[in-house]
Amino acid sequence: TTPDEENEPEIRLPANMHGNEHIGTEITLYFLRHLLTNYASNPQVQDLIDNKEIWILPTINPDGKVANTRRNANNVDLNRDYGYFWDGWGGSPGPCSQIENKVMVQHLDENDISLEYNYHSVAQYVNYPWDYHYADPPDSQHIIDLSQVYADSANLTVTNGYDWYQVTGCIQDYTIGTSGALAWTIETLEPSSSSAIDQICYNNRDALMDICERAGWGIEGVVKDSVTSNPLYARVEFMNPDRVDIYTDPNLGDFHKMIEQGTYDLRISANEYAPKT
Ligand SMILES: [Zn+2]
């Protein structure tokens, strides 16, 4: 068990996976500074830091950032390389082929992420899944409602990803499809002046403050061995109504599924254990 691991919903904010889309780095660093400098004076900041686990990743394409290129140093578009309905777009030679994405996948496996926003800057959208397929994702009305919360604060427009344009192999679809987290792609305009940088950072900070407190609103629990109380790496199936499965955090056995208010049948299973419904 890692010493800093607590039973909390986890939020992940990866930015700049397209190395020439720089404002996401500023948005995430600004949000980080906001959290670090206002803990003592701002009860909402205090609540977030005390009750959520927040992963802030200002660039997940460092070579592309330095070179100011969309793709990484291998000339692969990292947002076409993820392994959920991967289709070889963007120069990707295989699903999750790039080291930048392998570490993100490992991070997703090792943690129970509830909420993810990844940042881009070629449009002004809160882009919700799916990107690869025209069908609405499970729990789509809940996802659209949460999209609107972010959009209202950040002064953006809500769009379905596929409706805007189809993408395969993106991080958003991978995160929601394989981990059951809720995940969005945020698109903001790349700023044209320094004052525009500040305004974009303020808007997205306000949106993140509004939405991050909702991380984990839904169903949560801890899965343990009933004899030894050791935490288990378990699958949590949402059987009725059917929703995307989630997995526990192997360190503590905790899970946090953001989901609409209602009644759900769950089935919990782990290797070498009888499932429980
Ligand atoms: Zn992008």
Automatic annotation (TrEMBL):
Pfam families hit by this protein: Peptidase_M14
PANTHER family recorded: CARBOXYPEPTIDASE D, B, PROTEASE M14 CARBOXYPEPTIDASE
CC per GO annotation: extracellular space
Full protein name: Peptidase M14 domain-containing protein
GO molecular function per UniProt: metallocarboxypeptidase activity; zinc ion binding
UniProt record, GO biological process: peptide metabolic process; protein processing
Organism: marine sediment metagenome
Ranges where the Peptidase M14 domain occurs: 1-215
Family named by the database record: Belongs to the peptidase M14 family.
